[in-house]
Amino acid sequence: VQLQASGGGLVQTGDSLRLSCAASGTAFSRYTMGWFRQAPGKEREFVAAVRRGITYSSDSVKGRFGISRDNAKNMVDLQMNSLKPEDTGVYYCAASAGVITSTIRDSRAYNYWGQGTQVTVSS
Fold first, then answer.
1. DSSP structure class, residue 111
2. Count H helices, E strands: the chain?
3. Less Cβ crowding at N or C end of the chain, within 10 Å?
4. Residue 113 burial (CB count, 10 A)
5. End-to-end CA distance of the chain
6. Would you say residue 55 has pLDDT above 90?
7. pLDDT tens, 109-120?
């Protein structure tokens, strides 16, 4: 699976942004899809994921971000609302063929990664 993330940019606090991830390859619907982010000097952290129709999100973005997928188009999106400066970072989409619920927030469980897209939220 090859992943291509897009949609990042520079926005202001309170703005919204929608990230998209296009996947190539077959059997897209079988993959768990996730979004992670990495701020400068920090480790990569889980943002959201969708597996078997169930979505998961980190506490820091719950209620503000939403993940969705379109299996017919091989796409997964991350809708980000009420953005804050602490949401700044490089956002990566990722895919996993074998992740289980208990490891869905662990980046090591994901086999495939996109190149990342920069999101900058100014105060």
1. -
2. 0, 11
3. C
4. 18
5. 37
6. yes
7. 999 999 999 999
